[in-house]
Amino acid sequence: MNAPATTSMPRALPAEHRQRLMGIAREVAFSEGARLFEEGGRADRFWIIRTGTVDLDMRVPGRQAAVIESLGHNELVGWSWLFPPYTWHLGAEAVSPLRTFEFDATAVRKICQEDPEFGRTIARWVGEVVAHRLQAARIRLLDLYGPYGSGSRT
Known about the structure:
With 154 residues, the chain is of the alpha+beta class. The protein is built from 4 helices and 8 strands.
């Protein structure tokens, strides 16, 4: 659940960009079991976790959804808001009471267009998160469906 240094928002963004982003944040709480979003839905916002845990999951035909990764403090929940067609690639559920900072995706994309340096910083951060999540999904799916030991990180 601990984010690598480059995917944790405070470590990934310089102070001035972090302050600008947090200037448009709003505090939101979710109860345990709440769905933040569903795979295939419209990605119009994203969150930074303050407290609690979120499971990212993927629908698997004929099976229960597979939990890909658990996210915690200071981690980004949702990256699909940055890339057209702005639809969620995974689902997300609060597995404990959750307090977050919520961001309107349209507002953040507008700031990214107006301030190219800010936009590059956000794109690099989100890209690192996407790369990390892709690797986590690969390992998790190999653990679930591959030959024994195929998902190990060795």
